[in-house]
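Q: My labmate handed me this sequence with no annotations at all. I'd like to see what the chain might look like in three dimensions before we decide whether it's worth expressing. Could you predict it?
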Amino acid sequence: MLRYTRRRVLHDLCRSPRGPWEPLTPLLAEAGWDDCTAMWDDNGKAYFVGTHFADGYKTYLFKMAEDGKSIDRKSAVLINSGSGREASKLIKVNGWYYLIFSEHKPGVGRYVMAKRSRKLTGPYKEERQLALPGCEAMEPNQGGIILGKDNNWYFLTHHGTGDWSGRIVSLLPVTWVDGWPIPGEVLPQNIGAMKWSGKMPFKYIEKLSIKRSDDFDDERLAPQWQWNYQPRKEYFSLTERPGWLRLKAYRPLEADKLLKAGNTLTQRTFRKQDNEVVIKMDISNMKDGQKNGLCHFSSQHSAIGIVKEEGACYLEYRKNDDITRGIPIRSQYVWLRTQWGLDGKSHYYYSLDGDNFLPFGEPYQLVWGNYRGDRVGIYCFNDKGEAGFVDVDYFHYRL
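A: Here is what I predict for the chain of 399 residues:
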């Protein structure tokens, strides 16, 4: 069994990946450790692997309790170190234990490496570079090698340039060559390179697609949505007005700071030639101090929305908390739109009838932030207190 965690590992006594899961259990409450993994061997004994970034990227193997709730610090065995080695994974195939990891060398780049041993505890003396650094793909590594249901092997990984599209997930085929797993396209020198297309590892009856748009017709949020903060369940609803998402306003952690506002519902921004998101809002129940609208954010942010002050509603454009006030809005319904292309430059528009859209605010360059790309979402908060709400009829994401 293989599991990945960052400083903490989930308890193993769960009968289904759908849960219920027990609370996270701290195993190594020290700064400087990262990129951890765990493995239950054939005899049921459990082991934990952690890399001490703060001490030269040294990777240690620890004995772990079978319930996954503690590790034996005194059992530490050094199994790897050096050259920015991280993202360790353990697998066992045909009697060999493989430590799969990423290595980085300045001026060269990142690439996938592996060490192997006949014993889980080592020594891991045999070492091989599995793939070339892919400059055009930026880090096709830091993933896990898995056996598919079709009995073929795959490398689930990410790549990305660190720009606004974030780290993009890829599934690469794995070919075993002389007892080593080679990801991607196998070159004549028996080393892997990025592979940009391939056969799907399963047959499907219906065509699968990523959910983006939402008409809020269900009683539960669709799986594409994530909250920017832990939600307060009593402050949003899909049932109080069926077919609409109701967001109730409350104070942000810092006054007038969108990125510190709790009721912000988001999803991933995609990198396509033409992208458009349109939302329809009913703003008739807004209260003084309330602000809501459509936003982009990561490490920076922008938004187009409505603010209510002294009984009147106004259009508002925000960019990193610099605010431009627009025209008064006297209608019950407002439509807001963002459009962007491959350059990641967003343009905002508003409409009072759903057909005729006018531009508002300056173009905004989507950016990278916190190991992820830009998010697009709906926000609602009130600097003056827990008062007011906005109803959202739909979120239409067109590619």
